[in-house]
UniProtKB/TrEMBL annotation, chain A:
Its EC number is 1.-.-.-. It comes from the Bacteria. Gene3D superfamilies: Heme oxygenase-like. InterPro entries: Haem_Oase-like_multi-hlx. The keyword Cytoplasm does not apply. This is Iron-containing redox enzyme family protein. It comes from Streptomyces ardesiacus. GO terms for molecular function: oxidoreductase activity. Residues 1-28 are annotated as: Disordered. Keywords: Oxidoreductase.
From TrEMBL, chain B:
Transmembrane segments: none annotated. This is CDGSH iron-sulfur domain-containing protein. Pfam families: zf-CDGSH. InterPro entries: FeS-contain_CDGSH-typ, MitoNEET_CISD. It comes from Streptomyces ardesiacus. The keyword Iron-sulfur applies.
Amino acid sequence: MEYDREGPPLPTPRGPLSGAVGARLRGTGPLPDPEAVAAASAYGDDLQLALYQCYELHYRGFAGVSPGLEWDPDLLRVRAALERRFLEALRAGTPVHESVADAVGALLVEPVHGEGVSHFLRDEGELWHLREYAAQRSLYHLKEADPHAWVLPRLWGRSKAAMAAVEFDEYGGGRADRVHARLFADLMTDLGLDTTYGAHLDAASAACLATVNMMSLFGLHRSLRGALVGHFAAVEITSSPGSRRLAEAMRRTGAGPAAEHFYDEHVEADAVHEQIVRHEVIDGLLEQEPHLAADVVFGIDATGHLEDRFGAELLAHWRAGRSSLRTPLPAAPRVPAETSHTS
Amino acid sequence: MPNSPSEPPRPPAAPRRIKVQRRGPLLVEGPVEVELEDGTTVSSDRFRVALCTCRRSRRFPWCDTSHRARSAGPGDGPATKD
């Protein structure tokens, strides 16, 4: 049997489901009982980590784990049970708008006195908040745009061309030093964080894992292509103003030039992406497949639902003066950033 | 076809298309070079560029979504990502 030599280590289990999936990936122990999956909390640490491990086989895998397990039927059966539980909870718990126009329109209004995470970080965030935020978000940003690339073969015509163009931009327009995942690693370096892929998995909360698992879920299933497009639109539409606040937070705290640049780049890039995703990707998809409108709405609103949960959790911890992480970060070696990353 | 430095620049095959919206930025196919009022130029090699028309952008001439409507409510928006 062949094993991946590179890749992150398997995470520390958070319960019987994630423990059994991890054991199976190591080649020991039985898979979880389907009844245990049905009884687990859909947004809880155990189920979310079990699902995250299943999905990670489709990205970079884990060191010491066979890459062939990506298509192991028994593991896929468990993944399907985990996904069912997660998707049912998402569908049941997400308040949805009546139409795509309503859902998109709601995202296009900026609150004057916002109280979200980016507002908190802009106004009163300290370096330790920014480091925790970056550590948690690294689970997505170190594979930024990857979950969305899976939708490309499921689109055609206008929506495919536009989606590919936006993804090309996310991947640095053909330049490795501009790949957004790379820009995020540079931000992490400014913040004194370990930039190794998967380094912060044990530290990330279940609410954070859920936001990334949702992308993988929507990306890997052609039947959920409408939801993937809706999700991507929600991210792109809300990113620009949020990124501006985060860039201000990085500037105010003196986080470093690469940390500022990551969010400055997203202010500009996503102001463009928003337009393309709204007018080309969504409209193109619904022109061809109008029956997917409800899924697009679901993707938009489910994204808001999970992001709100994650944001509320971060703020609850920080307002109480507590860490939001499951495992503490090593202290930052405050090395002054020497490289300028301005565009 | 590979480009070599000795090749003269070729004129674009078709007029450059600019998408105009009543509310929102001008969308121009990149790369673009923009000359500002003071004579300085800024450039972007993005595949598409959004140029601010509301004059509120803090990254003028690029759009930063400052044209958006604002709500008085204290919420963070229905799905503010960050």
